[in-house]
Design brief:
Elements: H1 3-25, H2 31-52
Amino acid sequence: MPARLYLILALALFSVSTTSLVIRYLAAVPAVVMAFWRMFTASGLLWGYSALQ
């Protein structure tokens, strides 16, 4: 498999495994705010990836 695929898989694994830590430390933040920032970050990453393509 290409190295690029390994990088994407490692990033996905890191993102999924650290979600519980983020939620634990941001317990006082409303769920809607947390969801907004997660979607905003994900859309920014996807936009950046598609701009490079």
